[in-house]
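Appendix B. Extra example for self-study. Work through it before the problem class; the solution is given directly after the inputs so you can check yourself.
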Amino acid sequence: MAASGEVQDLRLVNLVKSFGDFTAVDDLTLTIPGGSFFALLGPSGCGKTTTLRMVAGLEAPTSGNILLGDTDITNEKPYKRYVNTVFQSYALFPHLDIFENVAFGLRRRGIKDVSGPVNEMLDLVQLGPMARRKPAQLSGGQQQRVAVARALINEPGVLLLDEPLGALDLKLRRQMQIELKRIQTEVGTTFVHVTHDQEEAMTMADTVAVMNKGRIEQMGAPVDIYDLPKTAFVANFLGQSNSVAGTVQGRSGDDLIVGAPGGSYNVPAARSTRQEGAILLGVRPEKLSIATAGSSAAVPDRHNRATGKVTDASFTGVSTQYLVMTTWGDEWTVFEQNRSVDLLQPGDEVVIHWAPEYTFGLDVPSGE
Amino acid sequence: MPALAPVAGGTKVPSGAGVQRRARTAYLLLIPGIAWLGLFFVVPLVSLFFTSLQAPTGTPGVYQPGFEVANYVTAISDYWPQFIRSFIYSGIATVLALVIAYPLAYFIAFRAGKWRALLLVLVVAPFFASFLLRTYAWRTILADEGFITTTLNALHLLPDNRILNTPIAVIAGLTYNFLPFMILPLYAALERIDPRLIEAAGDLYSSPFTGFRKVVWPLSLPGVVAGTLLTFIPASGDYINATLLGSPQDRMVGNAIQTNFLQFRDYPVASALSFIMMAIILTLVFVYIRRAGTEDLV
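Solution. Structure tokens for the complete assembly:
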């Protein structure tokens, strides 16, 4: 057994989990650095929860290994591994009060004097006065914090969080995102957080791994993945993207020239996974500028541009979200900061333009 | 705001008369239940109590109103072995039923999957045959020349060389007959337990056994209490099993009450026996529930 409290890397090596014909986790290899806040992000059924359950020991891998530091814990019984879980519905013990819920893991390990650590942990999650209440007497947010305290008090090598904020309303979720981040910074434990909420993943995690169909599509810091998605799935799952399919026609300096419906576009070669042939160009909605067709002369020459017609304008206060039907029949989204009060109206002919360095080039997904 | 008036008129605000009518309906609906209990429970109970204090007239089978506390003394002094036997037999049967029923209920609640409904039907299936008939069947099953007795005898496992007409047969019959009353409440309690709690216990360093002891067992206690009461109370008052499966030395209080009522026509002593039995059971139940502390459970 590894000493608890030590910060160690969690490594998944060629991890596979099949249920009959269905492969839930497909040859996953991944290193989660000790002390990081790591998010496994993906749609439901992508294998993220199965991965988490394998790390917790609640599910046995079909093949592959799980290592904590240098110790192989693949076949270690769940109650023997220094990994603790915050369950999706918290799974607090209803017959025990908050104090005993938090003390549960310590008592099972034969630790006699629990009141010091338990009270300290309850203070950390700001539930000191609630120690003698039963879980049913607490609000959802408080139960959530008990679940975190109950797991963290064991000083696990890794803390697993399975959609921990899923049951909370939006406002409380925001609050708990900050709270969890604070707790993680304070205790320094490795947090592995499974979620389908891209905003939640980006807000909290140092590193996000986007999962799809049992595989990791892309992994990195939220800013990097958002700025430069490597697959169409990531471009659309993590934030929104506008895209157009085209063909690489040549190079101009560091840029690729791409011919596509609506004209010719430049994309930095370094920002493209394809250097020739069919390519999918993408750009984030907030990177776009929008101008009336009449003022198109003011668009900088080097900008990529597309023309179209506004089909919808929704004013959201800080920004306005436009839907623009492009000349080739795709609907693009544009977020425009409300620096002026002259909003465009549905039906207006517009030019959308953006700097080439905001563009990214992707492989055209099969089946498109 | 004239525009709003029709809306306000349209909403159904309960009027004073409506509330009153609803309250009256509730009381009216209670009448059949109260009448039934009054007629078939309270009246017989009071009548039984007065019978238990009646005095003999000299003519056998005829008694007059009185205050014969001696009936109670007779009941206890003549029949204390039956009382003790009743509680020992039904106590052992209850423990056996719990030991048999708990794993079964656990399996149905957590592991049975699509077989769950079928298994529950099978648990209740014996009720489709009469209680008497099923107990008679046990006479055949446990008969001296039957398969079970001959097998166990061949292995020299039976002290009396037989099962039928021994306390073992009575206890076996009681256990069998009241087993469903143990399984069903246990199942109901176990089925309510979130399986994730078991996972959480494992995640928090409990071996499967410790997880059971610290999480599943305490959460199933309401079912254990209900099941043991539903088994113990009817089993301790039963006389069919002792009559059909036991010898005359294995008689229980139920037999004593039956004989006094139907053979000796000693109604006061029979009534006194019933009242003593009731008092003991009520006391035991009260102490038991206090001890189990179920009122503290969710």
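Self-check: The helical segments of chain A are 48-56, 98-108, 115-124, 140-152, 170-187, 198-204, 222-227, 232-237. If your reasoning did not lead you there, revisit section 3.
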